[in-house]
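Let us practice reading a record.
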Amino acid sequence: MAPSVRARAQRLSNLALNPQFRPPADGLLTDALIDRYLSARRSTARKDAAPAIRVDPDETAWVEVRIREALAILEARHLRAETEDGYARAIASLRQARESVHDKESARTLNEQIATLEKERASLKALDSATPALAANARRVSARRAEIDAVRP
């Protein structure tokens, strides 16, 4: 083996035995982690040599997972908000219909439907079970969503 090849092989072996990246104990993304992730993704998209940007592949993978988790939370919140809006419109419509009925049986039926929808809408609030770290990561990813979306496959 040529000296330069042997030296590179030794460095790779050392990296495998001594990983450089240590995930933050709190599980929080930082702007620096996101910046390096974005650089690595841009470099990969341009077919640049990964070592030139010096981003640990383990770090890139860890950040990618945190970003995916954050995006899932953001999407779930968006869908939940749309669902809550649908419930609100349906309840408003039933209330308006209740105002126009004159018999007690129809009013009772509409009141039951309204109560059922209100109960279902209230149950949506309980679905927001993100850990504090995941909620913080979602806020950070949300603030940088355009940059992240631009480099994601």
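A brief commentary: The first helix runs from residue 3 to 17.
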